[in-house]
Amino acid sequence: MITPQSGSAGYAELARQLREDILGGRLQPGQRLPSEADLQQRFGVARQTARRAVAVLRSEGLAVMVPGHGTFVREN
Question: How many CA atoms lie less than 13 Å away from 70 in the CB half-sphere?
């Protein structure tokens, strides 16, 4: 369950947790990120929150979207 820190949005907290999973090696390069539906269920967030969190990771260069296949951890 996502509980945003004081002054932090839910999507930012979810992005932080996913970023930690990527940088900590729990999500490996080339591995598919959980779907929006999976993130909704796992973290108890709205679809838009999940979508914005993944967009943050893409903008940071940590993830890439492959149309028709999903979003993946960026290869080094």
Answer: 11
